[in-house]
Amino acid sequence: MTEYVLLVDAHQALRTTVAAVDPADWALRTPCAEWNVTQVLQHAAGDQLAYAAAITGGPGPAENPFAPSGKLRDAPLIVLDLALDATVNAWATVATDAENVPNPLPQGPMSATLAAGACALDAAVHAWDIAVATGQPSPLTAPMAEALLPIATALCEPLRAWGAFGAVVPAEGGDDAAATLLRYLGREPGWKA
């Protein structure tokens, strides 16, 4: 799995962010307007399980990641760790130079680099959603954002039609790599609860 460095970093950002959420903050609203922090966690964990299932043919998430219930079956970090462990194990079976990697995206099979990048993008942006909703610093480092932006631009346009991302938010002077990425994904970098 260490060959997928971007994915490892994104998973770590998500895990660290979830671990730091105060127990009283799971019902707070998030940049995902219809979801609270618990629902974003459910969505993020479900998406990771969907990647694992696409690769291995194993079971996917127990509930629809796009209609999270807001009720966790276990402690938040356990829910996340089970999903991330499944994803790590699935990616361990995929060569980094593979060309037709199955994934849950409507675009169909793609290169391992692009598919792993998409999986990383999902984890990283939801880490940001949870972090800003709960008053934590942004987990999106400049190198991570710079690496994720070309993946986002390669994949996101068809996904906007599915409601996966909002409309691009106009750039502002002084935007750094993380702000540029977030705006492209339809998020306001200065969002506050």
UniProtKB/TrEMBL annotation:
Pfam families hit by this protein = MDMPI_N
Domain spans labelled Mycothiol-dependent maleylpyruvate isomerase metal-binding: 9-131
Q: Which InterPro entries match?
A: CHP03086, DinB/YfiT-like, Maleyloyr_isom, MDMPI_metal-binding
Instruction: List GO molecular-function terms, semicolon-separated.
Output: metal ion binding
Write down the NCBIfam families for this protein, in alphabetical order: maleylpyruvate isomerase family mycothiol-dependent enzyme (TIGR03083), TIGR03086 family metal-binding protein (TIGR03086)
Q: What is this protein called?
A: Uncharacterized protein (TIGR03086 family)
Question: Which organism's genome codes for this protein?
Answer: Longispora fulva
